[in-house]
Amino acid sequence: MDLRKALARKPTSLSLNNANLASFPSELFDATQLVELEAFRAISYKGNPAMPAAIGRLKKLRSLTIGGNAFATLPDAIGDLGVLENLALDYCQSLESLPKTIGKLRALRSLSASYTTALESLPEEIGTLSALESIALTNGALKKVPAALWKLRSLKVLALPEEVTTLPAGIARLENLEDLHLGPKALASIAKEIPKLKKLKRLSVWGRIKALPEEVGELRALETLRICHLGLDKLPSRIANLKALTSLDVAGNKLKTLAALVRGLPELRELSFGDNPLETGEKREIERLMRLPPSKRAARAPKADSQKKQRKASSKPERIGRAASTNAWLPLLLADADHAREWGGAGDGEEDESSDWARASSAVASAEKTRGVAAAVDVGDGKGVVVVLAVGQGIATFFRVGERVTFCETFCDDERDTLFLEWIASEPDPKAKHCGKVDIESGRGMALATMFAGEEEEALDFDLTAGTYAVLVEEKVDLSWGRGRRGHLIPA
Hints:
Elements: H1 3-8, E1 13-15, E2 36-38, E3 63-65, E4 86-88, E5 110-112, E6 134-136, E7 157-159, E8 179-182, H2 184-189, E9 202-205, E10 224-226, E11 247-249, H3 259-264, E12 270-272, H4 280-291, H5 294-297, E13 318-324, E14 331-336, H6 337-340, H7 356-365, E15 374-379, E16 382-388, E17 395-401, E18 404-412, H8 418-425, E19 433-440, E20 444-449, E21 460-463, E22 467-473, E23 477-479, E24 482-491
Parallel strand pairs: 1-2, 2-3, 3-4, 4-5, 5-6, 6-7, 7-8, 8-9, 9-10, 10-11, 11-12
Antiparallel strand pairs: 13-17, 14-16, 14-20, 15-16, 17-18, 18-24, 19-22, 20-21, 22-24, 23-24
């Protein structure tokens, strides 16, 4: 990037992200018209990361992103940015303190400093930021917060790291707080004040603890509760009072019963409960309940466990193999193996807009009918379908179930789990999206991440009877074994 040319255009917005600069250039601070400046990881590893006091000259700045740089502190002049609304300091791992002058940023609405592993405290002056609505300080070294924080009556979002184990009294004064993220010890320290957070809609607790305060059940406006992987062997009994709750994540705990709670939450629509030592019968009952409209769950008596499948299964699944991506985003190409071998992937690099990878990405992004889930593409002399399951694992596992092939991207610890295999074997959901058709002429199908070439080892080549196959993709699910999404190749 030629910074001088960029500045000559008098921009109001400038990005120096990953610019690999030796230091912050002096001419940058002559651009007093700037309203937005992004300089995430702008300074090279061997450069001088110090933020000059001249930053105070950019008095029109409303948004400043300077995370990922190695400065130990900010200049006092940061307080001169009187109209600044957003300050992002994430991944500033050498940042040890914030200047007291930060209290002069009276227009500031958002402050984020997550992954700041040297920042252990906040200045008292933060309590003067009357416009502040969001503070995100997760995954850092912060160990305490000042009581002045409770003066921020506009605050809606407060996210703290687990290292903050005790909070000063007074959080109930945050009368507009809607979103709270904190460790279990910090939550326990404010237990008596929890019921006074009348507007709290989302609560996330991370760390390890055996029990949560009963007062959590008094948050009558709560809509989302995330208490996963805490080691809980039971839930507070008052959680049944959370009648507004729509999303509950209790995965990775030690819970032995849950179905009764599910019946009693009239608005619950999302439930993550995998990796708990529940009996198989209870798991089936919970999955059955979550398929019902919330209003009908309470009236349904528990059903005795049986080997009856959630949806009729046609055959026992036979594992074929896996196709993997180099990252969590898995755009998967499905095609006849002979044609797929002509697929070029990303070519010399992901920036090549003429590559097969770029062509596939563009096709999926513009696919209105499937809402970015899948798209038909030309593959060599044939046709294929690109599918994006978007679960985040980056690995698709393929199974043969009778005449169809079912593929899935999941977070599942044990693919031998009885209910996982029942899910694979069950009939396709009638509401699955129809994403196109694939013609198999050679008697072999191929699946591979679109960034790879068809000749590479990452491709999954498998037997598939010649013919035309419809490609279906279902919605994501959260079930007893974990979460995931299925797709199918079904004889048309």
